[in-house]
Structure formats: C-alpha cells, structure tokens
Amino acid sequence: MCSPIYIQNSFSESPTSPLMIDHIQVLDSFKTPYIQHYILEMPISDISSDLTIEVGSASFALHKFPLVLQSGRIRKLLLETKDTKVSRIYLTSLPGGSDAFELAAKFCYGVNVKITISNVVLLRCTTRFMEMIEDISEKNLEIRTEVFFKDVVFPNISNSISVLYRCETLQSVSKEVNLVSQLINTIVNNACKEQLTSGFSKLEYNFPPRPVQ
C-alpha cells in the first residue's frame, strides 16, 4: 500500500487536523477545483520534498502536487511506475537541460516566469517535452508561449529573426514543434508586406499630380 502524504485540510472543521490523501488518488483527481485549491493555498515550503527530479548533473528536490497539476509528462511517469513510493525521476533528454527545467518548475509552483525574446524558444521546446498543455491545466505554459509568439514575435521582423537565431541551439526540437518554418514564413511575409508598402509609397510620391481643372 502506498505511503500516505499529509497536508493541511483548509476545508476541515478543525484547522489543525490533517487530511490524509493517498498520492495515487491525488494523481487521479488533480484536475478537481478541490485539489487545485490545495496547491494554491498550502504552504509548500513547510512540506518536505517527496520527489527529486534529476536533470543532467542537477538535482531538484520538489513536490509531486504542483508538478502533476501542470506537467503531463511528470503525471504519466508517476502513474506508470510500478513503484508506488517512487521519489526520484530522471529527465535525461529535456531540451535546454537544468536551466529549462528550473523555469518550468517555477511555473508549476506559481512563480511568474517572464517570457522574453531570449527564452521563448527554450520555454516552447520545454513545454512540449514536459507536456505543459491546456489539456492538463488551463492557461498552462505552452499557451502562454504561443500568445507571446503571436503578440510579440511574429508581427516584428527583427524579433522573428532574433528568435530564429536562437532556434539553432535547439534545432531538432524547434523543427519538431514547427517553430523554424513558422518563423521563416513570418519573416518572408512581413518582408513582402514592407516591400509592397514601401513600393506603394514611392509610387504615390513619384506619381505626377493631377492637373487642376
């Protein structure tokens, strides 16, 4: 039988009485508002780590609850393991390594991860690997990176070129998530629009004025 995990029950009649939840039961019901309320309200820092994530040479002592709420990959790994008391997971092929995982983990814990031109490729590739998608949790990290691409990257040629350059360090994954082709098409389309706009402006400027009747 699985070892129980004790967390404070904010819905209990007695504020000091613990709620005992089997971690497999939690994994099966983590999308309920009840469990989501727990993750937002419970003092994570006061609870001992119950899961260590190994990424390359880096180790992260974390908690299962916030991770399974946001990451489909972590959820699957915990559900598929034969050892119900698993306390260590190895992510050997995570794009971007420990730096990428640290950003993803912060997001899982509710930390505001600032998306920038410099890290949006890393985050986009990481969210694909970690399966941080809308089917797992609303307003997850993947959709936030997509919004950033739509609002900040794609409309601007300079930003698109900068992001395309950063795809080089994660080339295989960038192609897999269709980033490279999207960026190239966007750059070409925007360049054509600028050329057309510039051409029309010159044509209008050079066109002889209509004679006054």
Automatic annotation (TrEMBL):
Which pathway is this protein assigned to? Protein modification; protein ubiquitination
Q: Which InterPro entries match?
A: BTB/POZ_dom, NPH3/RPT2-like, SKP1/BTB/POZ_sf
User: Looking at the record's lineage, which domain of life comes first?
Assistant: Eukaryota
The family database entries (Gene3D superfamilies) matched by this protein are listed as: Potassium Channel Kv1.1, Chain A (3.30.710.10)
- Tell me which residues make up the BTB domain: 49-117
Output the PANTHER family linked to this UniProt entry: OS12G0117600 PROTEIN
Descriptive protein name: BTB domain-containing protein
State the species of origin: Capsicum annuum (Capsicum pepper)
